[in-house]
Amino acid sequence: MRFIKVKAFGHIRSLLGGGEVVLARDEPLPVSAILEQLKSSYPPFSAYLGQQQELLDALMIGAGSREMQLDSLVQPGEELVLATPVSGGLI
Fold it and tell me: 49 with 11: CB under 8 angstroms?
């Protein structure tokens, strides 16, 4: 059995109860399906996403050096990274 690791940063880390979730997968899985699994397993994560108008505004999603979309496939052995967007400016 191979795995897809989901690494969480920022606020997402606390919603998932830690920095890493491991999903047992032998075949590629779309980002949207991974998010659905996380939503069903982690109610705080589901509640956070449910409050967002636009999902991709609430999450930065990447694998390796690629920015991922909801229909992007994550391969077994890859790490999917979830983080909250950061904005700011000069003081």
Answer: no
pTM of the model: 0.86
pLDDT at 59: 86
Answer yes or no: are the C-beta atoms of 56 and 46 closer than 8 Å. Answer: no
DSSP string over 45-79:
HHHHHHT-SSHHHH-EEEETTEE--TT-EE-TT-E
Strands 29-30 and 60-63: what pairing?
Answer: unpaired
| Alpha-carbon separation of residue 16 from 11, 52, 82 (angstroms) | 9, 17, 10
3-76: CATH architecture: Roll (3.10)
Question: Rounded to an integer, what distance in angstroms lies between the CA atom of residue 27 and that of residue 79?
Answer: 14
Question: Which candidate, 50, 77, 72, places its Cα nearest to that of 61?
Answer: 72
